[in-house]
Amino acid sequence: MALGQQPQSVAIIGGGLSGALLSLQLLQQQRARPLRLSLVERHYGIGRGVAYSSPLPCHLLNVPVNGVSLRRSEPHHFLHWLHQQGHHQFTAQCFVPRYLFGSYVQATLQAAHQVAPLPLDRYEDEAVDLVPGPYGVEVRLGRGQVLMADRVVLALGNPAPGSVAISNRNFYRSHRYIDSGWSDKLEAVMDQGRLLLVGMGLTAIDWIVALHSRGYGGEIHLLSRHGLLPQP
């Protein structure tokens, strides 16, 4: 954008990986005009989102450590951070738990914020409405607070999956039905003798690995339209 058109305030709705990385990029840019950043996240800690909020060590990154860095000039930045945190058992070829990458994103963003001359305001709330006006956009939060921004970025992540198409829709309200694989209800099924996973993708594999790591002894059935597991 031309210098005279640069926004003075940006509100980022969603504080998962995309929202955190955009904040990181804006903090690191050299700008002729000051910029105020507002980062709104309703559920998870900033930088984690759904993917990196799992606390289970059996849920791993799908790339080794040497394939991940938040600094272009430092390809081993993630590995060095892991060692600084005392995780010396990990090498560049290791696949590490996803929650460690979430902590790495949070730490890198925090470090950038400490040295950047730009303010970064964080809100643990839900954006419920956007109202454009002559002087910017009102971002209305669920607890009643209103933010003003020149630009708004929607970093909302993946939408929730659709419910299974069945005739008895009352079943959706049953305690036997969990509507999302990204659910924190793993413990709720540990004492069940049989479990049906609808879908055979990576999320289903996450559930199977987590169930076995917790000692689940029941039957697990998988159902999908093609009956194919993910390829190595």
Extract low-pLDDT stretches: none
Strand content: 15-25%
Form type: flat
Say how many strands there are.
9
- Put simply, the count of helices is 4
Quote the distance from N terminus to C terminus.
44 Å
Fraction in helix = 10-25%
Oligomeric state of the chains present here: single chain
What would you note in describing this structure?
This protein has 232 residues and is of the alpha/beta class. Helix content is 22%, strand content 20%. It has four helices and nine strands. It has helices at 17-28, 77-84, 98-115, 202-213, and strands spanning 9-13, 36-41, 120-124, 127-133, 136-141, 146-149, 151-154, 194-198, 219-223. The strands form three sheets. It has a four-stranded parallel beta sheet with strand order 3-2-1-7, covered by helices on one side. A three-stranded antiparallel beta sheet has the order 4-5-6, with no helix packed on it. It has a two-stranded parallel sheet with strand order 8-9. The protein is flat and about 60 Å long.
What would you say about this model in short?
With 232 residues, the protein is an alpha/beta fold. Helices cover 22% and strands 20% of the residues. Helix 1 packs parallel to helix 3 (98-115).
Provide tags for this entry:
single chain, 232 residues, alpha/beta, four-stranded parallel β-sheet, three-stranded antiparallel β-sheet, 4 helices, 9 strands, flat
